[in-house]
């Protein structure tokens, strides 16, 4: 795993209970991961190349 992808996964592990979510690769964002909870809501967690940090976006209603 590359360093930035590892940081994305660490962020996810720090903010979620892993057995309560599904994680899929989401290649439209750098090192993107699509997170789906038990209610079916989704968000994308990814590496922001502009700011050099993990960032995320929630699904739009």
TrEMBL record:
What lineage is on file?
A: Bacteria, Bacillati, Bacillota, Bacilli, Bacillales
Name the species this protein comes from.
Answer: Siminovitchia fortis
Name of the protein: Uncharacterized protein
Origin: domain of life: Bacteria
């Amino acid at each position: 795993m590359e360093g930035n992808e590892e940081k994305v996964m660490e962020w996810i592990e720090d903010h979620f209970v892993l057995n309560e979510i599904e994680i899929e690769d989401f290649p439209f964002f750098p090192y993107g991961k699509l997170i789906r909870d038990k209610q079916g809501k989704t968000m994308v967690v990814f590496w922001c190349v502009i700011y050099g940090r993990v960032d995320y976006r929630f699904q739009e209603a």
